[in-house]
Here is the input.
Amino acid sequence: GVVVLRHREDPIGTFLAFAGASAERCLVRIVDAVLAADWLRPLEIWAYMSGLPEHKRRGWFHEALSFRVRAKRSTKTSKEQVSSDAIAEAVGGALAERHGWRVDLSSPDLDVRVQLNQEELLVSLTALVQPLGSRGSYLEKAGLHPSISWALAKTLDIRPGDVVLDPMCGAGVLLCEAAQHWPAAHAFLGCDLDAGQLAAALRNATAARAAAGAAGGGGRVQLFRADASLRGGLPFPDGSV
Here is the structure.
């Protein structure tokens, strides 16, 4: 996830076991620390990693974003006073009031995680969450892990009409994941010098397209034997990708 706050200076003494500690005072300290953090840059990074279109990234966080807070405390200190649920409720209420965000516990735009343990108070934003689906179940040949492939493709900000190139595609898993989840791109091109890897990529691409066919997904993957280490080794004109 994207880190908003990482407080490592005696987190237990700071937030749970200080003189005069009570449930209310503990929650006030936690909330104050969360609100005092610089949220702007982490939110911008989260927006980019979540695939928010570039033209919407500026100023988007001033809008009525839906969110939820999930908290977990992994220490027995003052457990009877401050529960994980109490932390989530207090932080959620404060963020909603500060930013005007809308609470959505089932399907939020933004997932905020608060973790408090002996080592730190950590606040982070969940990013790169792969949607439910096959998650590589179609693969016939092993390659880069499907979840990693999906995450890499996610960071490309693939748009309708784009040409996606993997110059050393191996078994083609990254291209297959990109084609399944961003089928509006114009083409998905893979190159590799190893004939065995290209054969594996072809089998995976064929299986991926068959698996996605019923849902109308799985863009076209084209494969080429080429050496990306050589100047001019890829069979594409300049500026075509």
Summary: The first helix runs from residue 11 to 15.
